[in-house]
Amino acid sequence: MVRTARVGLLLTGAVALLSATALSTTAWAEAPPAPTLDCALGYAGLHASMHALPGANAGKRGDFDVVSVSVPETWIIEVAFTAPGTPAHPAVMMRTQRKQVTGVWTSQSKGCGYGDPAQFEAAMADMKAGDTALTNASRDAVEQKKQDQSPLGTPQ
User: Fold this and answer.
1) What's the pLDDT band for 20 if we cut at 50, 70, 90?
2) Full-prediction pTM beyond 0.85?
3) Which runs of E-coded beta strand occur in the chain?
4) CA distance readout (Å), 145 to 73, 76, 96, 102, 154
């Protein structure tokens, strides 16, 4: 009888977990896809199209004109446009962060370079290094949260 009660409790928990997973998966399926870069539009065309995205937030960050758009808990994009006189100008670089089912936010960058190819490659290498750092930091935060919530986590 005790064994049957435990199995029933485990099944109830499994059904609740599957239901919650199905609900979150459904929410993900309904989110619009993250915008992408179409380098064929050129610097001015990308500048105009990114600023015209629904929910776009524009601002300055250092020497960059930055546009950000997000679907909370699904994806975030930041598009940086180089300013005249800066290395790699004219160039457009986009970082896309996507929340995985594990809770980890992964980062991936791509860009369009219309000026000095060597300067653009250097800028993209910096972006890619930032992607790795952001993804690793998110992964570490998720793992730490799991340890903090688990009764089997490391004692503090």
Assistant:
1) very low
2) no
3) 57-61, 64-71, 75-82, 91-99, 105-113
4) 17, 22, 23, 12, 12
